[in-house]
């Protein structure tokens, strides 16, 4: 069986990573953050905006997201996440995990890494 091609999109040569990778029926999206230096609510929305825009690059929507890793500077900010996810994902929630991280810059409070599924039968 021949392996399908892996498509690396948005390659960052400086950091030596790809923020979007299509591999088979799955799309892996990393380093989604936005609104650096603003409130946690604005940063969560900003990260989801970046995720949504990256998914659009490969013809997908938030509804295709099946897994999210949510990184917080302060795990107490997890309390803001459910309300925002209810608004942004409209009942089509991915599985998710939340954990803390020491980010590279002090203004970052939140980041998302995600996996989306492309149903090629539709």
UniProtKB/TrEMBL annotation:
Gene3D superfamilies xrefs: RutC-like
InterPro entries found in the cross-reference section: RutC-like_sf, YjgF/YER057c/UK114
Pfam families per the UniProt record, alphabetical: Ribonuc_L-PSP
Protein name: Enamine deaminase RidA (YjgF/YER057c/UK114 family)
